[in-house]
């Protein structure tokens, strides 16, 4: 029995992939029997995945499942229909399943290595390195998301050994986390962005210019402040350090990445428009095809095949946290919408509909407080959109979308229990609360810029 159980947990990716494939099939060929089967599978996946989830996600799962069941019973709904309330977030899990493919093609094309050379080049002081390392993390994040954090931090750790430990820890946690958060707000593969686009009904292209503006303002000011803070600290280099960077070669690599991203966005938008699909589903469908074609175009098919299989299998097999969160959240939100409590929760938001700036500030506060106490931004966003949808007729949905995205991702720099801060804490061997304290002013500023742009568009 123990051997079988061990085999199941080491091959969860097969179960996940089959379930999500059935779900995507029903998007094009709706079938009530298959949809019910997917709901049943969702319940099974929650039970199987619960054991492998972290403590935080287990708690969130129990809270959403218990309250969801209470709402379900309160609404006097037959239990035979329960599976139909479990699968509304399958699209998010389908997207998370294919994301490793995009990361793999960047690795296969060795774009990550080329860009990391930016940080290995000789610089006189930490102020200049701050901008360079932030830029590198920013560019990489657009394609490989959180993986960019690990790559950048590893390079900085090895190249800054001669810098005092305290300064090195602060430097790494600031430059990498901030660049990551600011880059994620416009990334089409970021789950927060995808949820917001579908929940607000606003096209991604409508949000993109304003998200890029916010990103540019925040990262530019952070570079100015970072350079000023660290410019007095000189950097000593070992003999093996790269003395000069081939600017032309590096520029070509960056242009290739930008062009690839532009083509990817165009294909996603066209696919969604032609097939009448949601943004999340469009991205999930395009990524495998785009990654394959890009690898072939780069003549890296063999390397991509090996890297992609390994990355996809490992990442998909470790999706327990998201499986228990999203599927229990489906039950909670769908059951809540069937009760009168749904209208009660909306009242505080509707009360301030004549003073939208209060609502925008409240959104940031909710995400910030949630991040500080350990509530994942995705859990917060799932509940928040359930109660603010009636405001779309009174407040510009673009404003709400911008504030939700910037506020949610600003927590990536301060969430002491979050993935990004935890990763940085382990990499730099410092207390996560210290990282939170160092980045709190930045997080508040980041959110304030988002609110300012959102208020301007009201």
UniProtKB/TrEMBL annotation:
Bilayer-spanning residue ranges: 6-26, 33-50, 56-80, 92-109, 177-196, 202-224, 254-273, 279-298, 319-337, 357-385, 397-420, 440-457
Keyword terms: Membrane, Transmembrane, Transmembrane helix
Designated name of the protein: Uncharacterized protein
């Amino acid at each position: 029995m123990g051997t079988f159980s061990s085999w199941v947990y080491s091959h969860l990716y097969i179960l996940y992939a089959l379930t999500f494939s059935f779900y995507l099939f029903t998007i094009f060929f709706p079938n009530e029997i298959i949809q019910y089967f997917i709901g049943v599978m969702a319940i099974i996946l929650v039970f199987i995945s619960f054991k492998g989830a972290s403590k935080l996600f287990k708690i969130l799962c129990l809270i959403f499942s218990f309250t969801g069941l209470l709402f379900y019973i309160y609404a006097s709904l037959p239990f035979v229909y329960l599976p139909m309330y479990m699968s509304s977030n399958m699209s998010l899990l389908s997207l998370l399943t294919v994301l490793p493919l995009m990361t793999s093609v960047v690795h296969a094309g060795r774009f990550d290595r080329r860009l990391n050379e930016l940080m290995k080049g000789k610089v006189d002081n930490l102020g200049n390195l701050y901008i360079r390392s932030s830029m590198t993390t920013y560019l990489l994040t657009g394609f490989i998301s959180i993986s960019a954090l690990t790559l950048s931090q590893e390079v900085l750790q090895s190249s800054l050994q001669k810098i005092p430990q305290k300064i090195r820890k602060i430097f790494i946690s600031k430059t990498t986390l901030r660049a990551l958060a600011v880059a994620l707000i416009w990334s089409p593969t970021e789950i927060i962005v995808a949820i917001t686009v579908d929940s607000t009904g606003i096209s991604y292209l409508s949000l993109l210019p304003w998200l890029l503006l916010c990103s540019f303002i925040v990262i530019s000011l952070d570079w100015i402040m970072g350079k000023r803070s660290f410019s007095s600290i000189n950097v000593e280099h070992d003999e093996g350090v790269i003395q000069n960077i081939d600017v032309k070669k590096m520029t070509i690599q960056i242009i290739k990445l930008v062009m690839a991203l532009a083509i990817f966005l165009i294909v996603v938008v066209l696919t969604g428009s032609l097939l009448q699909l949601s943004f999340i589903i469009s991205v999930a469908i395009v990524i495998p095809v785009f990654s394959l074609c890009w690898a072939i175009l780069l003549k890296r098919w063999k390397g991509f095949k090996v890297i992609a299989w390994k990355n996809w299998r490992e990442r998909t097999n470790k999706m327990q946290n998201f499986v228990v969160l999203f599927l229990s959240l489906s039950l909670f939100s769908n059951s809540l919408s069937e009760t009168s409590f749904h209208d009660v929760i909306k009242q505080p938001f509707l009360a301030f509909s004549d003073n939208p700036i209060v609502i925008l500030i409240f959104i940031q506060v909710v995400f910030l407080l949630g991040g500080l106490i350990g509530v994942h931004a995705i859990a917060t966003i799932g509940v928040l959109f359930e109660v603010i949808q009636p405001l779309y007729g009174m407040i510009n949905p673009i404003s709400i979308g911008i504030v939700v995205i910037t506020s949610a991702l600003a927590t990536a720099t301060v969430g002491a229990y979050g993935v990004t801060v935890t990763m940085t804490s382990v990499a730099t061997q410092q207390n996560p609360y210290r990282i939170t304290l160092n980045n709190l002013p930045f997080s508040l500023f980041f959110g304030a810029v988002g609110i300012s742009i959102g208020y301007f568009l009201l």
